[in-house]
Amino acid sequence: MLSSEPISLYVHIPFCETKCPYCDFNTYAAIEPLMPSYVAALNTEIALWGELLGSPKVHTIFFGGGTPSYLPSDDIRHTMKTIHAAFNVGTDAEVTLEANPGDFTAEKLDTYLDCGINRLSIGVQSFDDDLLKMLGRRHNAADAVQAYRHAQDAGFHNISIDLMYGLPYQSMGHWQNTLRQALELAPPHISMYCLTLEGGTPMERWVEQGSMPTPDADLAADMYIAAQNDMKASGYRHYEISNWALSDKLSRHNLTYWRNEPYLGVGPGAHSYLQGCRFSAVRPPREYIRRMREGSKGAGNNSMPEVICCVPVVDEIEQIDKSLEMAETMMMGLRLDEGISVEKFTERFGTPLSHIYGDTLRELEELALIQTRDGAIRLTHRGRMLGNEVFSRFFS
Ligand code: SF4
Question: Helix %, strand %, coil % for the chain, to 5?
Fold first, then answer.
């Protein structure tokens, strides 16, 4: 059904021990009794996709959520077995699991390694205990350091940590301290996210009601600049707007998204992009389980939309036409330091980049937001700070 191009696989785990007040992901606290039936439904969905797509090659797997490390490790092992039976997983596949620092036990880490997880993404967020409390996190700074060391001692060499900036109450001093402690650990990969006050979250309400200060956008921009400087001085490659890596430890899974390449997401609310179709699964875990129990809705041997419709949890399908695919390729690709290769764009779409976006590119170049170097269009330093301004031009 698919071409020989490998795909990435995202596996959604919708459980968290507690819900952080800033988080609007499709994830829930206090639904632990659903875990066994959820894992059964998830494995059924994985097996069904393997069958419908003819066991395509998979080059990256990402267990995200939610808190995958909160799930019993045998459930992760079971799911990895199902993935291997359903797909053609490359021997060098990157297999990442998102984890909270408080969840690591020796048994869990051994199971992960044993079943093929070779990369951990640890949600550290901050090395300041008061800010961690404010964020509703269950760990403190010492737990984060200990978790990192445990993972290393267990045999993980490819570890990423997540940090947050632009937080209420966070000063530049707090942020510099967090950066310093992160760099002392020298993780191969660091992601840094500016807090967004998402609609409907408790934190948005607290800020609106005035019981929490509004984060300072100018200070957040200064924090980003400070991070860029510190990371550069420590030898990290700033390969994506929010991501830094040492040597070759870029997130191969996330590169799939940024390069606008095919991926399949399984689990409630997971998004997918295959052969020009973008689709997502029903969000509530109970509804997801109920629908998977009902089973496949047909054999679907024809077009990709027909195949997708056989999967009972798929809720929305959108066909992406060529012009939208081109605009999305520009928007996502410009996030990367490698930028958009002029030659690859022409190869992919059969039309030179300059024919499609000539005027837009000239205008952005005049504004010093992009530059052409070594056959690729890239954001300038200024363009990185004003990314959304650049990206919106490709959709107008
Ligand atoms: S642990 Fe992560 S996914 Fe879970 S509620 Fe907190 S931020 Fe959201």
Answer: 45, 20, 30
Taking the centre of ligand 1 as the mean of its atom positions, its distance from the CA of residue 279, in whole angstroms, is 23
What is the bridge-based pairing of β-strands 243-245 and 189-194?
A: antiparallel
CB 262 within 8 A of CB 275: yes
Query: How confident is the model over 135-177, as pLDDT tens digits?
Result: 999 999 999 999 999 999 999 999 999 999 999 999 999 999 9
Strand, coil or helix: what is 147? helix
Nearest ligand 1 atom to the CA of 98 is: 2
Residues 6+ apart with CB under 8 A from 133: none
CA–CA distance, 151 with 228 (Å, rounded to integer): 26
For residue 334, the 8-state DSSP code is T
As to burial, measured by CB atoms within 10 angstroms (0-12 exposed, 13-18 middle, 19+ buried), residue 295 is exposed
Over residues 81-140, the pLDDT tens digits come to 999 999 999 999 999 999 999 999 999 999 999 999 999 999 999 999 999 999 999 999
Closest C-alpha residue for ligand 1 atom 6: 20
Ligand 1 atom with the smallest distance to the CA of 66 is: 3
Tell me, in angstroms, the distance from the centre of ligand 1 to residue 46's CA: 24
Q: Is the pTM of this model over 0.85?
A: yes
Q: Which of 184, 188, 175, 180 is nearest to 215 (CA)?
A: 175
Structural domains of the chain, with CATH: 7-258 (3.20.20.70), 322-395 (1.10.10.920)
Residue list, ligand 1 pocket, CB within 6 Å: 16, 19-20, 23, 25, 27, 65-67, 100, 123
Ligand 1: centre distance to CA 281 (Å) = 20
